[in-house]
User: What shape does this take?
Amino acid sequence: MSGDNGRPLFDGASAQHLTYLAGWKPWGRRPHVTAIQEQMDAASQRWISIVEDHRRLNITAEQRALALAEREAELKHASEALAERATELKDVSKALAESETTRSRERDDAQTREQALAGELDAQRQVSQELQKELQEAGRRELDLSQRYGAEKMARAQLTTSLVDAQDRLKVQSMQHAATQAALESEQEQSRQLGGDLDLLQAEHAATQIRFALVSRLLAVPPPRNEGIEAFQKLLDDDYMRFASAEASLADEAKALRLLQSIQQELHLMAANPDIFRRTVVGVVGGFSSGKSAFINSFLGKDFKLLSSVTPATVIPSYVYPAQQTQIQAYSFNGGCIDLDAGFYQEMSRAFVEKFSFDLKRIMPLVSVGTSMDTERTGNICLMDTPGYNPGTEGSFSQSDRAVAVSHSRKSDVLFWVIGIDANGTTPDSDIEFLKEIGFEGRPVYVVLNKADLRSADQIEEILGQIEDEIELNGITVEGISVYSSKYGKEYEFRGKSMQDFLRERPKGRLPMEHVEDRINEVFELYRSAITESIATAKACRSAARALALDLMQGDVQDAATMRSATQNVETINAAMNLDALSRLLVDADQINAAFLDAARRVLTPA
Assistant: This one.
């Protein structure tokens, strides 16, 4: 007899005893032994059947537990509990087998074992019933879970619908937010633009106030009381105007008037700052972007520099002379002067001046700049910075710039002709025209080929030779040509005299009146020449008229009316050719010339 998994129901000792009893035949088989043997066999059969039923139940329970585990997570717990119960049943069955093995040794325990087995079978039935109940409960729970799943699915569908609606609302809100954000950014941009416009207006207002303050100061400053200047002004307004009205010989009287007005401005400057005109005035002339201001800066100290840029910078002529401390003065049209801050003066670019609604040079014709200079190189000179006479772009005051450049360049004792060789390396035609207009005869001219640091040595040699030929071709006499770099303050090479030698040869100073007297005499020499020419013309006309009259009298003119008409024409010619009036004009020119000279001398040496 074997038990579960092929194991015997009774242990070895019990089976041996049974076998022994079965084969013990000294007195034959006892009926009760046989009966016990049969009962034991029947019990073994029932046990096998129970074990088989138990095995089938276990398999069924496991299959159902697996099914429940696959269907729902919650049934897994029940399956695990069922598996635990099956394990316990196995343990109990095993314990029962061990107990039956142990009790098989004693026949009295057989019935007890059968009862125990019956109890176990009852328990197994109960377990099966409980499992059935649990399976039913699991079914109900599965149904409930299915219903809950359906409800949750419907709720999820509703939530999905709500989510779609919410997303649609969110898109609308996002679009509205984007529109609001765009409107906000537009408002902010407009605010920034308005802020920028306000800043520009404030800056323009501040600049306008600065310009207004400058004009107010220039107009309010009284001219210095000077008897010589007052006498010069009275002569210009009265005697000269009467003389100019009576005199009709000079064709370009406007030029003569401009020269006298220029001399008057020079006298104002001499009275306010005579130190300038006791020096040799070196006019620095050149076209647009030739580097005139940079050239002057190369002689100045580190404390102050003139405004220099790639656009036309110099607008107001500036007289730069050596001084211990930087002092800048602006001169008004009536001879008064005001002090200017160095920073403000350096901001007086063309753009600043063009903001005025008029030509600032009319009320502020010039500026003087006293600052530290390298006197070892320059000597006792005053450098005059003038506007470019051929600005690169048409400006509202370009013609005025040229007129001012011509007027002030004529006042100079020496000319520095600056040519920028960074462009094409030739003498501009406008430079030649300008030099001929201001008159270069009788004053030293020195050529500066500026910006040499932008050219190679071979290029410089080629440019130098070409410019020498052009200068000679135009009949301009120069004392030297310097290849110079304003950036480094360095002379690379030269022709004729070096720049240093040329500056050393300048006189240590000059008598200011000599220059002014020469310019006054130049004006009235124009009148004397024109009047003398008119006298010569008048004499020639009167001689021709007398000859005509003699010819008429000696001729055979029979018509008395024709004779009277010819005689009247001759008398008209003689009356028009008033030699006495022209002679008086010549005397008046000498007298007014002397009066102007006397007034000019009284500017620096008051009576």
The chain is about 65% helix and 10% strand.
